[in-house]
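Tokens for Glycosyltransferase family 4 protein. Go.
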Amino acid sequence: MKIGFFSDTYKPQKNGVATALYFQKKTLEEEGHEVHLFIPYIPKILPEKNVYQLFSITFPFQKEHRIATPFSVKYDLYLNNLKLDVIHTHTPFSLGIFGAYEAKKRKIPLIHTYHTLLTEYAYYIWDHFPEMVKKCMITEKRAKDIAIWISRFYCNLCDTVIAPSTKIKKLLINFGVKKPIEIIPNGLDLRNFHPIDKKVAREKLNLPIDAYILLFVGRLGKEKNIEFLLKVMNKLKNYPKIYLLIVGDNPDKRVKNNLKEEAKKLNIEDRVIFTGYLDYHKVIEAYYSSDIFVFSSLTETQGLVVLEALTAGLPVIALEDEAIADFVKDEINGFLIPFKTSNIEESIILFSNKVIELLENHNLYKKLSENAINSAQNFSVQKINKRLLDLYNNLVKEYNIKNA
């Protein structure tokens, strides 16, 4: 099958969409399919077969991201010769617009994966353009309404929308999306995960050998709620061997500096380690060097890093969120902690108590760790690809009948 992917992000950019897309393309090609990927021009990208870069500029308030022109005469002509069977977009913006145009023009199926919960990223406008917000009288509600409109409008252009989790399917229906919605999570290439001795992994990352390490992996952004984890660490002051390892960064250095300052105020700065961005193989080493994966974000569409942690055998302690609950089962492979904005302190206490419980109950830890590895097997990218291909083939058949 000839498949066209259109995305605003790809490796070497470090985010869940770029990672998922890379493994999806790679494994589909291993299975004999032809995948053509259209992305913005990304500096330092390594040459790769069937990856096409369109002219792009830096995104205004996320400098690690770029936004491409939503049309290219060169690639419009090039697509005439490709004769794609389906187009699958991974963004509603620039390249997503180009992908939708090409699918409609060529009368082939258009599929879209809704990777990012746009309504939860409106705060970037306030943080970076306060004067514009003031002059244009953009309220938080108005910004979220615009995000909902974009989501609804784009999804309703498609033949089928893929939601990575139950949570996102429900939200899209509430947004007013009328097109069929399939729940297909992003998969992992489990072949990348080879158990590493914990001591060896810690030596490679220069981590304390005798520590009990809680791990967070992700972008350092307000939406990830990392301050919550610092407050959990504050509750664990009587356990000096517990460390928090934070893997990830933000091009806006103020974000990490603010987190470091908060750790200093709480007098836990000596037990909070910031690594910055790491290459993927180093991130895997971080999983195997750690004891528990901790996650406090409530804005995920899926949370691929949580799935990676389970694959490495880490029990997960996370704030209760429907996107995470699709694969973290309470008291089976981790713990889901109820979160109420009206009583955050209670959630902090519950969260820290579960850390202590796993630290002290070795049998429970072993059970959750084994269950974590077993549960992750259901999310191999090869199994996910089979579901994708079934969807593609069904849509192609429908189009063949329609266009006959």
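The first strand starts at residue 2 and ends at 6.
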